From TrEMBL:
This protein's name: AP-3 complex subunit beta
UniProt xrefs under Gene3D superfamilies: Leucine-rich Repeat Variant (1.25.10.10)
Recorded topology in the membrane: Peripheral membrane protein
One GO CC annotation: AP-3 adaptor complex
Amino acid sequence: MFNQFGSTAETLSKASAAVLRIGTDAHLYDDPEDVNIAPLLDSKFESEKCEALKRLLALIAQGFDVSNFFPQVVKNVASQSSEVKKLVYLYLLHYAEKRPNEALLSINYFQKDLGDPNPLVRAWALRTMAGIRLHVIAPLALSAVGKCARDPAVYVRKCAANALPKLHDLRLEEHAPAIEELVGILLNDHSPGVVGAAAAAFTSICPNNFSLIGKNYKKLCQILPDVEEWGQILLIGTLLRYVVARHGLVRESLMLSLHGLESNGFYEKDGLVGDKKDGDKSDSFDANLVSLVSKCYIEGPDEYLSLSNGVDTVAASFDSKETTSVGDNEDVKILLQCTSPLLWSNNSAVVLAAAGVQWIMAPLEDVKKIVKPLLFLLRSSTASKYVVLCNILVFAKAVPSLFAPHFEDFFICSSDAYQVKAHKLEMLSLIATTSSISSILREFEDYIKDPDRRFAADTVAAIGLCAKRLPEIPTACLNGLLALVRQESFAGDLELVDGEAGVLVQAVMSIQTIIERDPLSHEKVIVQLFRCLDSVKVAAARATIIWMVGVYCSLGHIIPRMLTTITKYLAWSFKSEASETKLQILNTAAKVLISAEVEDFQMLKKIVLYVLELGECDLNYDVRDRTRFLKKMLSYKLACHEPTEDSVASQENIAEHVVEYVFGRKLKPFSPLNLHNRFYLPGSLSQIVLHAAPGYEPLPKPCSFVVEEHDQLSDSGRQREAMSGLNGSQESSETVDEDGSSEYDSESYNGSDFSSDGDERNDANDAADPLIQFSDIAVSTDQEELRSKRALDLWLDEESSTSNQTPSALDRNQSSYAKISIGDIGSRVKPKSYTLLDPGNGNGVKIDYTFLSEVSTVSPLHVCVEVLFQNSSTEPIVEVSLEDEEAMNVSDSAEQTLVGKANASYNNVPTLIPMEELSCLEPGQSAKRLIQVRFHHHLLPMRLSLHYNGKKVPVKLRPDLGYLVKPFSITIEEFLSTESRLPGMFEYTRRCTFTDHIKDTRMENGKDKFLTICESITLKVLSNSNLHLVSVDLPVASTLEDATGLRLRFSSKILSSEIPLLITITVQGKCTEDLNLTVKINCEETVFGLNLLNRIANFMVETSSSAI
């Protein structure tokens, strides 16, 4: 290629690779020793040190030993460059165990870096200290972890959680309680990233210390959706184990469905269990298998199966004290609610973990919610398809009807691996029903023709299982299987054809499986198999047919008359048979002789004697031993001239009883219980490999964790305190820097004379109330602690405040709030005005609009908008009106997608209530009109048409999120109660800066500074949104210049759904300086709440056009 340019494919490939390496450090791996490293490590330039360290790490990656550079690298730990520090830490982690003495020299630097203002440096230092696995520095590392567990930076606290398992691996028994205490502190963190790492530490350090989980259970459930995906897996398992240990299994769940199945009416549950009259109960709900699964989950398969004697062993029912109910247990209900959304997670392991919780704990009628997420995972995730199928198989074995309607999802794809194909075949045989079996059998017909003959053999076996489960279809299956046995290809030497022998063997075994259900009705099928015996050359298949000769030798009227002929044929072919076939011929000969009729006895005895003589001379010692055993056992039969009718219990005919017992009785079919019925927790590695993998633990014994009464009271108090201070602690621990954008940032607006009526009903009461009222709402101790520890240097130099606080300080932390009464605020509210049409685009027509707080008289979905028309031209304007353009034209597909089905129930409500037409608008004249609008979506503008002077101008009326809600008057107690029910995923926070109070001239005239700040914030909020002011609270302990802790609460309801929406604004900063506001919204409508939060944060930053 390109020879005319002197280039080849190889040279072009090298050139392309070189271009891709430009600007990277990949060249260090080519020849990392091409530069003398030692001088670079001693250089005074940070860039050269960085180059040398990168080369050392490249050598380490290639397997070279560069530990001789350890002293030179260690001294660079004092470098001021963060990049050099990071590389030095990586080097030290690799060689610390080889050079422990030199590593100890760097401990002082690590401790110094733990006080660095840069959180990344603190995290690197902690990670390196914990990674140096030396018992000498373990106490220092534990102290560092304890300090970093309370660090203000989230990343540092997360590194502290990751360091705890490393310290635990050092087997520090004397420090085990301290390590577990740190795990509890990190589990109580408000950052999802820290909680995920703490859950991993809990799993590896103290998985059975459920007291740590009980203290923070509700908060862990609420924060679960926000934790990183791999942390969610561990946290889900931990919460499930806690609930089982604390409350036991759920009585209404599938795991306990065996006990009280009839009384609870589970057979009538839709989609789970079929009608009992159909006689198909075992196919829809295998109660014995469900009991086995539940026992395996609790006790472990090895322990449970060792105590069981067989498949029919039914475990004793659970004690009623070890069970609970979903309706009565709040912990179980919260766990099921917080794991339900995770069924649609992007991570397949999270989906399996959440499905496991629903499978074990959910009521029986709710178990079916796991079906569609698992099927979606099966279709979308190729990498995890096998793992998902292994878990689905367990679910389908217990409740086949769960997946029966979705049988098409288990049809084989050509790209599936063999293991996936085998599991799908097993699934199809499990969930086949009378309505779906015809489609499944048509699929099986194609699978039998597959070039992969091992897969074809598995398909034949699946046909037999389907026929065994469904008694309506054996005839059709038997005809097809017999045709398969009679194929001409089986007449040759199939041992040389790869996989064909397996197909034939499975066909014969499937026929045998079908016959076992009702042998008498399939007598002719057995006869056809006997006639095919000469054409079947595969040893395993011949052995199976010969075994059937002995088992059914006395069945019906046709088979006994054929025994002499068949036995002669077996004796004739004995010499040329394989060893396994010879063994079956010997067994069959014994069975035939025992059940022989009088007229055939002499002939059969001669044939059996001939076969026994051949067996005694066989080259295989197993055949010889079997022959001697049978000859001795049948000696009494071979010595008599006719079969005996009755046997007398005497010493002479004991052998006859033994023979009758061994060869005459009907044996029960063997069920490989220990191989196929080993169940482990869903989503675990053990369920895939079918044995207990390292680290696997079954669920704890139900109700094995008992909480003392005083512990329960203290735990509930701590949970309430944590929930009340969730916002303050979270925002103090982690700085959120989000830049939101709004459609209104570029809109022009001006003040207007319109006033809000939302708070007029409270004016009279506010005027009569005192300015300040005391409230019994206690301040959060965490907020006071974080306020007093605002400076990072203080945190770095001092110990935890909880250990040094005096009783008086603790009393001050629990001081009360003062309730501030603002008074007449509604009359000063000035709603914001937006431009609908400017004079440049409207030929002199200017239109402004303002959202009003008035309630629509037409529908609760409508918003009142006041439109101001102004004629800036020199000519009069006639016939001015606004019409809904979307009522005449079809909305574009993008908007229709956003609207979706949310407004389907409001299609009969008009989008726009027509305004009164303006007949004439003279030059310089203005007029106001009121329109009522129903927006399709809180982000989509409404398309309107402006008509005037016979013209049509399209305009867009943009919604204001602040007016898509309505005031919701509640008390402060109701506000806090509602807020406590909407934490975690229903809570959103944002920080912003507020400066309007600084420009207020009344601040300089001696007016109360706190009251000025409260009025400024309230007016800003009410001028941009339609809310109800619930309360304004100020900590009594605040100084005269410090507004930190000031809190304003607003309440409202979303117009379209009547869902409550709560807003809390917390102030931080000095009265005369810029204030930092933390805006928190609690709302079940996640998208609406987040958008409104950004809207509020944006207009709070905007500067007002005039002073108050």
